[in-house]
Amino acid sequence: MPDNMEILKLRLLISFLKMSPESCTVTKLAKTLGEEKYSVSRGMIALGKEGLLDRSSPRHPELTVRGKAIAGKYAERMDVAVNHLIYEGVGITEARQDATYLSLYCSDETFRAIRGMEERCRIKYELRGRRSFDGMVLCRNLRDGSYQFPFIIYRENVKDKQNISMANEGFAHPCELIVKKDTGTIRLRAVPVTRSSPDGKSMQAKISSLKYYDGQKFCDAEKNGDFMQFPAQVLNFVNIGDDQGQVLHGSVCLKMASSAGPGRMPESTAIFTVLI
After folding, report:
1. Fewest CB within 10 A of the end CB: N or C in the chain?
2. Are the CB atoms for 154 and 165 separated by under 8 Å?
């Protein structure tokens, strides 16, 4: 069962953060939150004991520095959780109530996942009117952070009725998009792939080099161990579908070479496609 006092303390913290000092009296808070005055008073006393609320002036209590930091964290969580639940079809009243539980009890890792999902929904809404755009537009609209997206690497030409490139198995899934100050980078991690040689022996190969097409020429991707990365701005996006069926489909042409044992396999061309 949820701890009603913990939920009330959370609501009080956010109220002190967002409301004017004149509105943060026991009487006015009780009216705003729909709680009994004695419950609000108990909640404020508890916040004071935890060092989150300065009650040295009984008529004008205020958040401490630590209290403001924690209130800001939970206020941001609430906004993210409400938006996410509404997008998933939850009614506004239920979304606000359930967002309180999510904000209070979910781990930071879970909230990073929720925040990432909410950001995907937001970016789709922001770009809903653009049928095509490049990766630079995407990154200018995304908040700074690290995002994980599914991807598929297609063959340049269909072979044996198969259009998925062997390189699709040559990288760990999903890929990572890192956005910082309106600039994005797609990062991939190469992994070994085992295949049978013509004589029936097992052969292990691994992608050793990667090039991306920037619109004029193929450029070498940055390489650091098994990680390879290229600028997200070279992706060309098409906006497909509407509402919850909307998909942002981004692609770029790649050239890859693989090492197999002591040898090196010839360079091949494929189409990298990311789905948002």
Report:
1. N
2. yes
